[in-house]
Structure formats: structure tokens, C-alpha cells
Amino acid sequence: MASPSLMDSLFQRSLDDIIKGLRHQQSTESTFISKVIEEIRREIKTTDLQTKSTALQKLTYLNSIHSIDMSWASFHAIECISSPAFAHKKIGYLAISQSFNESTPVILLISNQLRKDLNSGNEFEVSLALDCLSRIGTVDLCRDLTSEVFTLMSTSKVFVRKKAVGVVFRLFEKYPDAVRVCFKRLVESLESSDSQILSAVVGVFCELASKDPRSYLPLAPEFYRILVGSRNNWVLIKVLKIFANLAPLEPRLAKRVVEPICDHLRKTGAKSMVFECIRTVATSFTEYESAVKLAAVKIREFLLEDDPNLKYLGLHGLSIMAPKHLWAVLENKDVVIQSLSDEDPNIKLESLCLVMAMVSESNVVEICRVLVNYALKSDLEFCNEILGSILSTCCQNVYEIITDFDWYVSLLGEMSRIPHCQKGEEIENQLIDIGMRVKDVRPELVRVGHHLLIDPALLGNPYLHRMLSAAAWVCGEYVEFSGNPVELLEALLQPRTSLLPSSIRTVYMQSAFKVLFFCVCTYIEQKEDMTLEVSDLTSKGECSESSDLASAKAPVACDQDEGFNPRNSSQSYEDPSVVNGGHGHVSTSAFMEETSFTRESIVKLVNLMELSLCPLSGSYDVEIQERARNALGFIELVKRDILSRLLRKEANSESEDVCASTIVEWLHDAFYEDLGPVSITAQERVLIPDELVLKENLADLEAICGNVELTSSCSFSLRSPYYGESAGVSFSNHQVEEDSEPSTEATSLLTEHRRRHELYYLPSEKNETITTANDYAPATITIANDYPPANYPSSGINTNDDSQDLVTLTNQSLLPKRKPNYAKPRPVVVKLDEGDAAPVTAKKPEVKGDLLSGAIRDILNEAKPASSQSNPSDKSSIKKKGKEKLNVDLSDSKEDLAVREQPNPENPSSRRSKHRGHGKEKSKKSQREEGWGWKGRWW
Amino acid sequence: MIQFVLLISRQGKVRLTKWYSPYTQKERSKVIRELSGVILTRGPKLCNFVEWRGLKVVYKRYASLYFCMCIDQDDNELEVLEIIHHFVEILDRYFGSVCELDLIFNFHKAYYVLDEILIAGELQESSKKTVARLIAAQDSLVETAKEQASSISNIIAQATK
């Protein structure tokens, strides 16, 4: 039995051996390690502590450098720390602090050993235990050892004391009740003359105050004393952090502290200190103009340094300042723009953030142009950072800063063409979103989408497929604005679409279907028109002329029958050139030419569609198959009809015509509904009808759903997204059409159905109201049918908000280049009242933190009468009490000593208590009383 | 607060890891992999700060070693750079112009030095002299224990027990 142990002891490999072995056997590292681990497993079981600890040390090495699991050895680590020899203890503690965590099963076993070591006469053993506790302290350990740490906090050995203070943070964090024991001593340590202890205490308070600053307001005088008195930068930086947290809570404190901070900022030579002052001012002293100016000067100095660290921090400081003091960024615009081409990606990112912070309505076009140019030249990563930040900035608050949507949409197209672009998904969302929200931009949108679809380069980039699906959808949905539906259809059906994933391919197919349908529809309407005119003129010879005429009307005519169609833009009726705004006259004529379909061209289209979809009707993907079959079914119906017409060119058979238009009409109904943005809270806003009796056994669900508010003074109608009209559009058409009965069969069926089953419909008159985001518009608009209200004050909705914003923004903007005037007013952007963004769920504060701050407040307020309640918001009473206090301070210092025991200045009742509370107080060190008393004159 | 300290060689070998916040073994390996990928690829003239998972990593290269400390978002980067430098200076004084090999073969001593500088993720001792004194005192304690243990009579006594 003895021999293996002896062998182990005598011939055990030392740590050095292992390290050397590992270094020389690079190739078979893993086999070497597993061999060593095997040895360790054997060695660690011996009774000889020397052998055991060496084995443990080797294991710790392998764990920390080679990430070898050592949780199995936790018990052996505990054995080592109970050794009397310091060397073993040390190895054991190292192993424990490296490998133990909350879930280590044997962790409870070390409680006693830790206590023993904390009480040891050897300060180094104490220090080992404290280090260990600071690293692995659990709730149980912290609870058990609080009193030991408390004792150590007042030991004469500075070396141990500072460690004990350092451990206190962990103690408080894990076991808030420790506050009751240790907090006073911790506060007293703030008075310590030893800089190391002071540094440790301030470090603890810094961490504590960052979690719950309000509790530490009463200690502000102490911190203030350190702020003006200390020369130790380590300490000062922490104190500045504490004040950065405290100042926003108490304006008078901020007023008091700002000057010393500026003093430090002026005098100190240490850059870390300068930066801390800058950060403190930028985060918490933004109201103090002179301080901010001083900080801005210092930032400028940082920015002009060659050191990339200072440059980065300078930019970082600016971005902290940006939200409240944009001028500081604008002043340093040159450096910021320059930094965009810095070699350091981190600096580039910071400057990108700052550039985006400078974006406003007046300069968004300029800045985006600059950035897109940068993106073209940048590497893949930064290019996408740029694109991402452009996209996210521009879509903020429902495209708040975009005035010219035509420009923005073409910018989206341009961004998609940048070779590195990987933002397909984001562009997809925005294309569709803009299409639904901004009615005026649809022609341009279709044009851009069309160009994207025919661009051969894009199909090959998988990152852009999502974007392409949006382009396809937009082109299909708003095909009436397309200048060249034929080409569009060809683009949608091009063979290379097989490169797309099936989900996107189905979008292509559906869009192709819509386009084809539009063409057929146009053709039939045009045909009808022609016959109408032909019969009017009763001259068959003028066919060619009248067909031109008809085609000009065609896109409108097809919609005219269904006057209620919200897709029918009023502009297109009034002024066709607006529809094709982007194209100018050339394309307008192209539009006319292209949309005048001849039978041959329609047949060609139908054949093209049939040809491309036929192979897909047997696709394994169900979606593709289904859509292909849908389209083919339609083609089947239409084709027969059209072909038959083709045969009987001259002999116009009435019955055939009726058949064709019926099909078209029916299908038109299927597509006529316009899609609008839907509020994500829309479902919640639907009021529960009175008649609806919910099952009783579901009643307990209310507890779960109760917090979902039904705050809908204004609900959002899903069926009729209303696009407010911009100025200059007359509503006379709508007025005329308003009273006309819905003419299509489907709608009348729907109405009929609704009449009969009113119960299951949403109450339309009561609830179909829409609130536009514009405050100047009437709050709610009741919509009886699907019409926009006739007498809607168009000037009201034309974004008075925006013009006002514009004025203020142009005043603010210091950028030299800006676009002074806009050719056209900003189109109306449909906004939902509040449902646009996902609801921000407030983070629940940690329970532990609550306990901790509760305990600390208790401690700080412990001397005051129990009945008092803290009332931090009652500023006026604080002020009053403060004055009162001042008087007392001067007149009666004896009585005041008692009052000074209640340090919470936030608490009026603590002031009040001075009349009844004195005599209750325990006597304390006179130093402390001076500390508190001094604070009395403070506020 | 410092979340963790890493020492990584230029070749991506880990030389020291110290975790002040709880990370599981799996997370640790992941963190090391991720960070060495980020930090080792950065050029020499770039700034010493990296934003990473909502935290910041301050690193500095000394010879072939990268010293990295991960800190909270609102901690002072320059201060941490000074702490790193402080640590390096103390190591330098302790080992006598420290090199990577010193840390490889005395990995536990590097930990002991670090433990005297940081506690609970905060700086505890800003005086180099004091740290040197404390480490020396502990070393002598260890040495005496070792001498006792390694005396041959002791080993034999242990083995024949």
C-alpha cells in the first residue's frame, strides 16, 4: 500500500515538468494532457498534502490555461486549504477562486475553514480567505462570515483592512442584511487617512451608487470633502463617478459640485482624470453651460492629439454630449468627418455615430450622399455599419427626418447596389413600410423596384434576396404606377429567379400574377372604352386614334367603376404626369404606349406567364406549386376568352364581353383592398361587444391579461387605411363619389353579409376612427364608408408640425451646406398612434438591489422616528427645512448634534424630528458629527 | 468594476485568466476565443479599447503579451490602462525584467501578484513597493513550508506512515 504513495511523492511530476512537457510536445498536446490528468487523479487522492497540493496546482494550471475541467477536484481543494502549511493553503485557495461557483456542491464545506482563516493571526492567511470570499462568496457564505469581515474592517493592519473593505461589496450584494452590521464602519472608513483604504471604500461606494444612487445622497458631504481634499487620482476618479450618479437626483448638489469638478478639469495633468471630468460633466452636468464649454474645449484637445486612445475617447465624449449639446459635435465636425477614414475601426464607428447624430431634416440628403460614398470605398464590415446606421437613423420616428421620399426611395435602391451591402432585410422592411405609409411615393417606389428587379447582379447576392422580395411585392402591389408592366412581368419571370429561395420566389410569382392581371384588366377596360367611343362616334374607321385616347385613360378607367377603391389615387385622375413624376414626359408617353395593349401583346404576356409557370406547377414546394396553379387557372379562364375575341375580331359578341369583364371584375375585387400599416396593439383595441359572453371558466385569464391596457380612445381601422391628402389635391372627386353605392358584386355581398350578421362585425360607426399623428388634425375622424372625409381640412393635415420643426431645425443647424427650400411639400406619412414600435417593457429592478438599497436607507435613516416616510420629491419642503436647519445650526449647536444623526436630507420628516428626536441619539465619534453637521449648512 | 483579466500571447495562447464575475467554463472558453480573435487582429497603431457585448475591453501589448481587462461601460478606460501598466511594472520588478517565459513557468505567482493588486474587481493597492513587500513576505512563508515538506525524512515519514 505504501509503495505507490512513496513513488508518487518521490517521482511526482512538478508543475515545471508539465509546463516543459507541454512546450516540447506541441503535436500531441491532448494526449499529454490526458496522461497528466490521469496522474493528477491518482496523486490528488494521497494523504500527503504536499503531493496533493502539487497535483492540485498542476490541475489549476491546466484549468486556467487549457480550460480543462477541474470541478471534480473541488473537495481536494478544500482539503488543501485546511492544511496548516501556508504553501498548501495558498495553492488550495487559488484553485478554489479559479474553479468554484455558486453551484459547486461542496462550497458549504469551506465556510468553517474560511472562518478559521479569517480569524487567523497570520495576516496573509486572512488575506487569502478574504480574496477567496470576494471571489466566490455565496449568500450562505456571506451571511455566515459577515461578523468576521466586520471585525476585520477595524483591524489595525492596513493590509487586511483594505481587503476587508473590498470584500464588503460582495457581502452587500449577496446578503443585503450585512448592511445593518457593516455599513456604519464602511462610512467611517471614508474618514480614513490611509489612501489605500480610502481608495477601497470609495471603490465600494462607487459600485453601490451606480446601482442605486438615491440611497447615498446623504453621504454627499463626505464625498464632497474627498473631492476637494484628495490628491489621489485613483480616488478622485471614483468620487467623480459617484457624483455623476448623485448629481442628477439633487440639483442643489449639482450646483455645489460643478465648480470643484471644473477646477479639477482645469488643473489636473492626468488624462484619465481629465476624461473622467469630461464624462461626468457630459452625463450629469449638462445644464451648466460653462462646465460644458470647458469640457468641450478639453474634448477638442483630445481630438487633436495623435494618440488614438485620446482621439477615441474624445469622440466618445462627444457622443455622450451629442443628445443635449449638439453644438459641441458640430464644432468638431471637421475632425469627426476626418475620423471616418481613420485606420482604426473603433474610431470609425464612433465618428459614424456622431455623424448620424448630426443628421437633421435639412442635411440628411447631404450626409447620406457623403456616407454612401464612404460605404462604396469601405471594407465589408464598415460598409454595412454605415448602411445600417443610415437605415436606422432615417426610419426613426416613422421617417421623421425624411422630407423627400422620392430621394429616399432611390437612396434605398442605390444602397442595395453597393456590392458589400448585406442589409437586405432592413431595406426590405423599409421599402414595404414606405409603400404602405407614403402614398405619394409609390410611383417612384415602383420605378426603383423595377430597376432592382431587372438588375442582373442582385440576384446572385443572397443577402439581398429579402430586398428583392420587397421590390417584387411593391411592383406587384402598385403596378398601376408602373411605366412598363410588360418589362416588369418579364423581370419577375426571368429564369434566374430560380436562384431565389422558394419563399421569395412565391412573392415573385404572386407579383407576376398581379401584374398580369393588371395588364389584362387594363386591356379589357380599354376595349370596353373603345367600343363605347366607337359607338358614340359611330365611325369604325377612327379606331387607331380612339385607341390612343382610350389608352391614356385606361389606367384610370379600370378603377373608375369602383369609385370607392382606395388604391385609386386622386392625382392620377387629375394629372397623370404626377403619377410618373420620376420619368418626366418621355416616360409618360412611354406609359401610354405600353399600357395600350393590343390583343397580340396580351396574348404574348399570357403565353409568357404560362410558359414560365407551367414547369412550376409540379414543384415540390407547396407554396410555389399552389401559386403556379392559381395563376395558371386564371390564365386558363382569361385565355379562352381573349382567344375567342381574337377569332371574332369584328363580330363583337356581347355575351363574351360580359364574361371577360365579370372575371376581371371579380378578381379585381380580390386585389382592390389596399394594405395599410397595422398597429401591433390593434387587436387589443377591439372592444368586446356587449352581447359577447365569455366563458366563465376563462375568467381567471383576466389576471394574466389584465395588464394589457385597453386605452383606446382612438382605434385603428384595419380595413381602411386612410392616407391624408397633401395640399393642393381637391376632394371634389371624392365628394362626388362618396354617395355612390359600392358597385361591385363582392362588396355588395359583403355589405349584405354584414347587414345580416352585424353581431360578428366590429361596430364600424363607433369605432372606426383614425388618429393621425398630427396634433393639428382633428383627433378622430369617423369614417362611414371607406372614403376619406370630404371636408377634411387639407391644410390642417399638411403637417404643420413639420413646418415648425423645419424652422427650428434650420435655426439649429449650423451646417454650412443645406438645402434651403423644398420643391414640394413633404408627403403625408401614415402613422399609427402609438403602435408603431414594439412596446418597451420596463426593466424590473433587481429584487436583490431593492433589498440592498432598502437596507441602506434603513441604516441611514435609522435614527429618525419610525413613523416618518421618505418623500424625496417634496423639494420645497426640503428647502424650507433646510433653512430652518441653518438657523438652528447657528443658534443652538447642542441640539443640533442630535439632528445631525439623521443624515437624509431628502427626508423632510427627519428634519422635523429634531424637535422631538433629540436625546434619542447614540453618541458617536465627534468626527462623524462634524461630518453630518457640516452637511447641515450644505443644502 | 473589472469583470475579468486575460493575458494572451501573440500566438493566441492563454497565459493567465482571472474572472471576477461568474462565467462558466464554457463561457470562459468562448470569451477567450472571441476576444483573442478581436484583439490579436488589431494593428499596432490603433486605440487600446474594444467594445464587446456591451462591455469594454481595454488591452495593451507588452512585448509578445496582450494584457486585457474587461470593464463596465462607464468605467474609465485610461484608468484601466494605468492599472494594466501598474500590474506590468510590478511583475517586472518582481521577476526582474519580466518576459513571457517567467509568466509561463510561474503562472501561480502571476496570480498571487494580481491578487495583491485587485480585489473584487477593484484596484486595492496602488503602491508598487507595498505589493513587492507583501509578495516577498508571502514567498518566504511558502518557501519555509516547502523546505519542511521536501526534506527527505519528511517524505519517507509520510510514505511509510
From TrEMBL, chain A:
Q: What is its main location?
A: membrane
Where in the cell is the protein located?
A: Endomembrane system; Golgi apparatus
Question: Where does this protein have compositionally biased stretches of type Basic and acidic residues?
Answer: 884-899
Under Pfam families, the record lists:
Adaptin_N
Query: Which keywords does this Swiss-Prot/TrEMBL entry list?
Result: Golgi apparatus, Membrane, Protein transport, Repeat, Transport
Looking at the keywords, is Kinase present? no
Q: Which residues form the Clathrin/coatomer adaptor adaptin-like N-terminal domain?
A: 30-527
Subunit info here reads:
Adaptor protein complex 3 (AP-3) is a heterotetramer.
Name assigned to this protein: AP-3 complex subunit delta
What organism is this sequence from? Salix udensis
Q: What is the lineage of its organism?
A: Eukaryota, Viridiplantae, Streptophyta, Embryophyta, Tracheophyta
From TrEMBL, chain B:
Q: Pfam families, per this entry?
A: Clat_adaptor_s
Quaternary assembly: Adaptor protein complex 1 (AP-1) is a heterotetramer composed of two large adaptins (gamma-type subunit and beta-type subunit), a medium adaptin (mu-type subunit) and a small adaptin (sigma-type subunit).
UniProt organism field: Salix brachista
Q: What is this protein's name?
A: AP complex subunit sigma
Which residues are the signal sequence here?
none
Every AP complex mu/sigma subunit domain range: 1-140
Record key words, sorted? Cytoplasmic vesicle, Golgi apparatus, Membrane, Protein transport, Transport
A Gene Ontology biological process annotation? Answer: cytosolic transport
